[in-house]
Amino acid sequence: MEFVPGYALTTSAFLGRFLPPLAEGITTRYIERYSQPGDLVLEPFGQSPQVAFEALRLGRRLVVAGYNPISRLALSLTLHPPSEAELRSALTRLADASKDGGRLENYLKGLYRTWCAACGAEASADEVEWVEGQAAFRTYTCPKCHHLAQHEPVSEADLAWVNRFSAHSLDYHYLLDRVAPAADPARAHAEEALAIYPPRTQAAVAAMLTRFDTLAADREVRRRLAALIVAALEATCVLTQERPRTLTALPRHYIEKNFWLALEQATGLLGGAPAAEASVSLADLLSGRTGIHVATEAARELAPRLPAGGCALVIAALPRPAQAFWTLSALWSAWLWGRASAAALHGMLMRRRYDWDWHAHALGRVFAHVRPALNPAGRFVGLMAEAEPGFVAAALAAGEAAGYSVSGAALRADTAEAQLMWTTGDSASAESRTAPPPASDAVEAARRAAEDVLQTRSEPVRWPTLHFAAWQALARRHLLPAGDDPVTAMQRRLDPAFRDASRFRRLEAEAKDELSTGLWFLPEGAAPAEQPLADRVEETVRRQLLSGEPAGTHAVMSAVCAAFPGLQTPDQSLVRACLQSYAREVSADLWQLRPEDAGATRALEVDAILAQLRMLAVRHAFDVVDTNPQAWREGGETTYLFAVTTSAALGTHWLGPRLRARRRFLVLPGGRAELAAFKLRRDPRLKAAMSKDDWIILKFRQVRQMAANTQLTRATLEPAFYADPLDEGPTQLALGA
Asked: Do 17 and 230 touch, CB atoms closer than 8 A?
């Protein structure tokens, strides 16, 4: 199975730091490949608006299990986005609501009042920075003198004002009561969630909600307002991670943001081009009408309402454990639409166990519920962003427990993206097993799969790749365990196998007891079956450019992934490094082969470099064996050996049989230098070859300069080889080091 690369998202997505960061275009490829227009497609998690958007655009009948009201809101904004003008109009309705004898907008701005250091006029702070639990710095623009203050110390008046907002005010209790009444067992957990909002923000949210409740607006206006409010609630909560997994109380150092300003900024974030409403009832969808039905129930309630075997494809961005998002979804849903609307999420407030075993069971239950709806010839495609090893293990264990068979698996390690495919055909579910497989079978299968990926790639890999190879092999052979802790149990079995130094070698591992550190390779003396993957990828990229016509980044990435499928999928960064070495970017993400890298041009250049090297050898009284590699000999021994190449295929030369010489030079174009340095950074074996002075990189321009320099002597010849190092760092050793 080849990895399907996507396009980077071009806009800041609504709830982008919580929802799966799935690249554009991946869903499209899978839907086109495994379904036809008019087919019924099921998305059982409802966590990625991108999946639904692409399915609907391709004319499929799509049904989504969307029991999280916040996720449904995100999906509706993607499929039926309001314009910026419509959002501003809705916000004006809210701004004009009455509060304390004035407009709500003025009240909310007034909560963040500050006083201009230049003219003394009252302003509204954009944000306030808190240090060690105290307001310390402010950012604002004075409406009177237009003084722009950035990171300006707060005044005594600011401190007096902000200290009026207490941690457990009436607003605090009002917000708590909307989520969990005093007697509710979830109240303590709601208190923990509310603690991510500073007291002044709590006051702003409470004031806004009381007016939102009373607005006699139509359904569409309320949808637009809900979107703005959720965006502002996300922007003004204090989270300590870019993509938070859990919620923590306010840290000692944080930024407090103006809630009204966050509402205004959301109008630009959420505004989009108008699109026709595509929602249809489930009955209409099942009768053949194209569109989307977003169910308000979970997959376990939705799946029985679908025809048995009626779905050509089940596809989803698999969700990973996200206590922060589910807790905030419960909070925000109850605030906006009442406790009844958030009833399905209420249990999430109390849940604290989100480990990989729990997640495997949670995913497995959904997989099992939707299995009867999947056509026997259909596919279940799981798209995984942030595919760390535990997540991969949980997903594979879930598929196994639900009776699926893995039919394809691919991982791009540097972007942490995995793509898994299951079928229902040759299933061996946990229920159908007469006895669990022997632990020794699983250990040996995992070990062999890990060795195979190292042999096939012929270069060291990081732990996620080795782990992925082992676990997908276990899933393919139905060797994953059932039980309460399928992930932990298998990890415990495999741990000693990966610590076996006779089977695996660790390179640059900071902590040998941590499997996730360093690089993994075959033991000393083991001979890989292929050239290093990096060298093969370089050649594939070069061939993609040889026509001379501009090639898009995505097209080249797709071709490389097709050439190196599954566990061979190369890093995105490697493909980009190859593109930058051979091509110039003629426009955004469009590459064209550099004229000097045309095949005929480089062939002539190699001949010229070999001739110049021969001239240098004769000038300095060396005997020359004029081949490639070219040997300079003296007294019957090879002093210098020059391998002239137009590529940066270091492994081909450096990791093969050792050629006898006092100094060995790989002579390559200057345009390959950065790519060579990139390969040295990613493969310790290459660095070791260079550090032992086995090989030195020499650029074409150095040879030309040396050939033109008639002042060179035997004494200055060798230092001249080092005059143009590979890069500015200590990659290329100095003479005698």
From this structure: no
Same domain, 363 and 327: yes
* Residue 394: pLDDT band with limits 50, 70, 90: very high
Task: Give per-residue pLDDT as tens, 17-71.
Answer: 899 999 999 999 999 999 999 999 999 999 999 999 999 999 999 999 999 999 9
Domain that residue 582 falls in: 533-593
Inside any domain, residue 287 = yes
* CB-facing half-sphere around the CA of 301: CA atoms within 13 A: 9
Nearest to 247 by CA among 322, 324, 350: 324
Is residue 731 predicted with pLDDT exceeding 50?
no
For the chain, the residue count is: 737
CA-to-CA distance for 647 and 665, rounded, in angstroms? 14
At 551 the three-state DSSP class reads: strand
DSSP state of 501: T
**Which helix (H) or strand (E) element contains residue 315?**
strand 311-317
Shared-domain flag, residues 303 and 368: yes
β-pair partners for 506: 520
Please tell me whether residue 667 adopts helix, strand or coil conformation: strand
What's the pLDDT band for 11 if we cut at 50, 70, 90? low
555 and 657 inside one domain: no
- Residue 286: both structure tokens together: 């099942």
159 vs 136: CA distance, rounded Å: 9
List CB contacts of 354: < 8 A, sequence separation 6 or more: 245, 321, 322, 323
Between strands 98-99 and 311-317, the pairing is unpaired
**8 A C-beta contact, residue 103 and residue 93:** no
